[in-house]
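[recover] target loaded
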């Protein structure tokens, strides 16, 4: 059995940078650290409002990293042009609302199929693999199959948000059924959103899910993994000044 792949989403490293408009923290260093830690892929979401990842980040990552780049983006003409320009290995089409804090729910792949198909065809013509970020529903998997994409990413945000064990178990069952259904139709199955070290343990029992894309909780954990060291570095700088 091959190992489950991990895509590390580094959007929130850019969130820290954009909060101050500084040149740091470097997105390339973040990617290098994630890859050194075992990331099989780097994932970024180029949002229409550019609240974290910027166009130049995507270009720089594509030029620098040796693992696949997975570009999450809305299904718009502007973003298709960006994908063709930067040429990530994979594009994951996601729904996007300007006011949302983060992606809320999956893409409705069954809505406006002709428009979506046009976008998918353009990306396929540019030799870019396409995944659709969808809710764990058979109708969505059917739509993904009809649209001719090779992969889906199951939205796990609902699963992650549940606090009751029974609710979470029910949602996990929905994810399992969806993952099996997609696999039986020849789709590669990834999953992501809201996943943490705690809530991932039972999901990884689903062998059909071959890849997870995880961001916020890894970046949050990185703060604590590194805060002591970062404080020590500044303390050492102060100490050297008064000597
Ligand atoms: N997968 C997709 C399609 C997403 O839109 C996001 C959030 O950008 C993630 C995975 C990562 O979610 P989180 O940051 O909650 O781990």
């Amino acid at each position: 059995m091959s190992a489950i792949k991990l895509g590390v989403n580094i959007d929130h490293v850019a969130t820290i940078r954009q909060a101050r408009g500084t040149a740091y923290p470097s997105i390339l260093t973040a990617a290098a650290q994630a890859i050194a830690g075992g990331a099989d892929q780097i994932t970024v979401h180029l949002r229409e409002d550019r609240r974290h990842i910027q166009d130049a980040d995507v270009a720089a990552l594509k030029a620098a990293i040796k693992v696949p780049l997975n570009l999450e983006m809305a299904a718009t003409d502007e973003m298709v042009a960006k994908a063709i320009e930067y040429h990530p290995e994979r594009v994951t089409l996601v729904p996007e609302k300007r006011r949302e804090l983060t992606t809320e729910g999956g893409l409705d792949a069954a809505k406006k199929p002709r428009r979506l198909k046009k976008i998918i065809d353009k990306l396929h013509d540019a030799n870019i693999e396409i995944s659709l970020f969808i809710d764990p529903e058979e109708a969505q998997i059917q739509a993904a199959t009809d649209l001719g994409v090779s992969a889906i990413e199951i939205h796990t945000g609902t699963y992650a948000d549940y606090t009751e064990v029974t609710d979470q178990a029910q949602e996990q069952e929905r994810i399992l059924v969806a993952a099996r259904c997609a696999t039986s139709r020849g789709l590669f199955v990834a999953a992501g959103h809201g996943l943490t070290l705690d809530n991932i343990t039972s999901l990884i029992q689903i062998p059909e899910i071959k890849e997870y894309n995880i961001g916020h909780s890894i970046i949050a954990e990185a703060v604590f993994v590194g805060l002591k060291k970062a404080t020590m570095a500044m303390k050492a700088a102060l100490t050297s000044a008064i000597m």
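[recover] notes: The chain is about 50% helix and 15% strand.
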